[in-house]
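Now read the record:
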Amino acid sequence: MRVAVIGDVHGNAFALEAVLREVRAAAPDLTVNLGDQVEGAADPACAAAWQAELAEAGALEVRGNNEEKLWPGGRRSPLTRAYGAWLEAHVDAGMLARLAALPLTACALDGALLACHGTPASTWESLLWVWQADPAGGGFYRARDPRELRALVQPLGAEVVLCGHTHRPGATRVGDTLVVNAGAVSDQVDGDPRARWTLLERRLDVWTVDFRAVPYDVEAAVAWATAHTPFGREQAELLRSGTFDSRTG
């Protein structure tokens, strides 16, 4: 059993195209999309269409926190409202409605695999890491208390729990459950702008994880955003630097 995991595409069709090329070559039995599909400015309509095709072909999907911004009253800051108005003018309304209606969690393989964007209870929180504010300013992610993590994961009864949201690939074992935080297709946080996806394999009832990094044409993505949106400067800085603040995502 081979499972391809993508997530946090953030409307970046250029990064998604490179990832999907590798995913198709891997010939997975199942593809999982962990949400935050279109909130970005590098051809989000195209990115949305390709992800809809994956869903039509049987991909498992959950909503991200940015899908919840598509709900009535879901946008609060002036910047997100401005982006929302632009997005509604450039992405099919039916496509956006489909994304807004995605479930919080989804299961596959007779319950052996559970997917969520952040945690099984919230798209805005993260499962493996929690944000620790620094009184002097800023802060950092720290590992969630292992006892707290066990209390969240054990009742799920899954062999594998997939999550995203932090844009930080990583994995740990909690009892008999493998918890995998998949890398983000777009908007990296570690200074490496390459697109990310994750491949899981189950052989003889043992799951393994392979985190993948894929080069893509960042400058083409920046050029598209600059030519077609009012958010070109922000996209250029974000995509070139690979230093997205995932807490704002």
